[in-house]
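G., before I forget:
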Amino acid sequence: MKSCSSLPVIERAQPWLGTLVSIRVEGVPAEEAHRAMDAAFAEIAAVHRRMSFHSPKSDVSRLNREAMRGPVAVHSSTYSVLQCAQECARRSQGCFDISVAAELVRRGVLPPPQQAAHPGGGSWRDIELLPDGSVFFHRPLWIDVGGIAKGFAVDCASERLAALGIARSVVNAGGDIRVRGTDAELVRLSAPSSGQMAPVLELSEGSIAGSCAAPRSEAREELAHSVHLHGARRQTASAGRFVCVIAERCMTADALTKVVMAQGADSAALLLEYEASAWIKDSGCHWQHLGMEIA
Amino acid sequence: MFLPLAGLVLAGGPAYATVYLTVAQAQQLMFPGATFQQEFKTLDHNQIKEIEHLSGVHVLSNQLRAWRASTGGWFLVDEVVGKHDFIPFALALDNKGKVKGIEILEYREAYGSQIRDPLWQRQFAGNGPDAKLRLGRNIRNISGATLSCKHITDGVERLLVTYEVVLKPAGD
């Protein structure tokens, strides 16, 4: 019998969700690894198709066009993401809000959706998830699940690999990463730093998501185009702030980076509620740790 | 649930490259069991102009690396400009010229080498004495700087048009 150490490390990358998604599998023969990775990439592709803000055929685009006129049926995975988004919106008092898409369109970060009535105000509170799996908007809204779907896709792929008997895997969608297995994974944080120094974290059996707000030095337009908005106040995050969140599920880590980015130290209680941990670096300041202790 | 986290710093060092797949491996993954006939082509000036006009994407090279798959369809290898270096990728097209799959072949990133800095480490709360990073291992992950795949999407669009202009059988 072959020992684990002689088995190859197989890694592949494909473009999905507007970024590069890589999957690494260890400890199984190459053929089995590729079969499992094909299935895991198919999970990512399905999330991409259903939840894209850009594709007119996605669940998200159908909601933005039709959900204000009556309930719209969506795939169960889209429904799950919306449930998680609404829960995070409720717990963060609207700091996390998928209806900020209208503001992101206004700022030129997202293109205007086609044939969708322009929203006038409104928030996550106007989104109703009906028990039959359909979704209704109580007023015209534009939603974008870009702040959570990458993490969800990573979880789906990672869970698929585990279900196929892969014990050791790393799924990485543009920096939203989930690690399974006993060995720890080194993750470099691309926080702004002096010279060529950069911090590294070690992670095992968990997820990390990181985010960096536009730095002040890059002119005022950059801030106006920032993707980091406080859902309720619609203000941009502190210039140059770097945030990373560690949680068991990547979807949780992904969503919470937006809250920590907007609220800073005020998000400590929410992090504890989600059993998550965060590190923040503001320009000119030391690193700050929030949430669950990990030691 | 999670392993301890600790900090260290990186100093500038050699770039780190991940080779995902060789051309032969990508061929077998994307067209299992097929054999391949190499049909490399050099695009002429008019073809390049037409491809640029139809795709709206600049053509960097006049070399088209294409293989015909025995099971039907085409296997193409090309590259696009990445953040630090070129990103080579493979595109599989079915016999109608539709995308069957995309695989990144290689990715190079300036990750640097590792140097421990105890002062920096103390900035981390919850960093116990056992929280030591194992040095000497490659850092294969980076978080916080989402890489856009727009150049790859553009490259695929350019190759789809290249198929129409150069490879598609007349009359189809």
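Chain B has a mean pLDDT of 78. Residues 11-114+133-167 of chain B form one domain.

More on Monday.
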